[in-house]
Amino acid sequence: VKADPGEYPVEGIIQNFGVTFSEIDIPVNAQFINDTGVIFYNETMIVPGPLAPGAQTIVTFPNVTFPENPGHYYSIKLTMMTQLANDDHPENNKKTKTWSWGLDIYPPNTTATVSGTMGHNDWFISSVQVTLTATDNKGWPSGVNHTFYKVDTGDWFEYITPVIVGIDGQHTVYFYSDDNCIPPNVEEIQEVSFKMDTTEPVFLNYTFTSLNFMQDEWLCSATVEDATSGVTTVEFYVDDVLIGEDDEPPFECLFNGKPTNNSQGLAYDAAGNSAFSPLVYSSEMTVQQQRFLRFSSIYWGGASILPR
Predict the structure, then answer these.
(1) CATH number (domain holding residue 255)
(2) Domain coverage including residue 41
(3) Which of 167, 185, 193, 208 can bridge 263 by disulfide, Cβ–Cβ 3.0-4.6 Å?
(4) pTM value surpassing 0.70
(5) Which residue has the higher pLDDT, 276 or 9?
(6) Are strands 280-281 and 262-269 parallel, antiparallel or unpaired?
(7) CATH number of the domain that 190 lies in?
(8) pLDDT > 70 fraction of the chain, expressed in percent and rounded
(9) Which DSSP category does 214 fall into?
């Protein structure tokens, strides 16, 4: 039961369990005791009667005040006593009733644990699991009842098992819990954000182009995209040897020398995913190179300098 700080009425019901005599001037005591054993409310009311055998009556006590922000769990002890020391029914000699009254003004507290394979720059490179843990242990709690969550702008669901997010991008999981009070204490909405990129960069094009007739100067050029975290670096290889890299588009690198076989690019995104381009072989000439060769053969004529 939820009870906010404030003033509350106190009432009890007594009954004459006797079978012969009516009772008068019945003392009835009510006490509130906090969790440290301190009695902070102690009132005795006299029921004048007469209270006939089997009859009941309501006893009204002064109001009790719960202090602001106590966080305590109160026990109410109600003691009833007849005026006769030896009544004809033993239940009338002394009757004690004790029950619990919970004053819980604190909502639960929910925490989130985010797990997955971490790449670079705080990007996850795998699906992300969000585990929610709710506790209700402040003051004298009533216990966690429900935990709810939603992903981004989606619908709210009751949390049962860890939440799995498998779509690339930046995400926020919102969550909160309530307790068993009536009405419940409800936690303010919490959130945890993360970003994930599980996809490699994509080469749209990769070329390895000779810039002169002697084929000792080449241009490596790559067109790469990465839809989520973005391309950060392209490395260029000739005959499996790293010759350079470029961090900004257009991604290009010059190679001086005569390749023996092939060239290839290796692209990285901000999350740390990487992908190779297809191999381009040095024997594969572009249309521009073929035209250059025809031009050179026409004007060869023993010239010592070829057009470039």
Answers:
(1) 2.60.40.10
(2) 6-102
(3) 208
(4) no
(5) 276
(6) antiparallel
(7) 2.60.40
(8) 76
(9) T
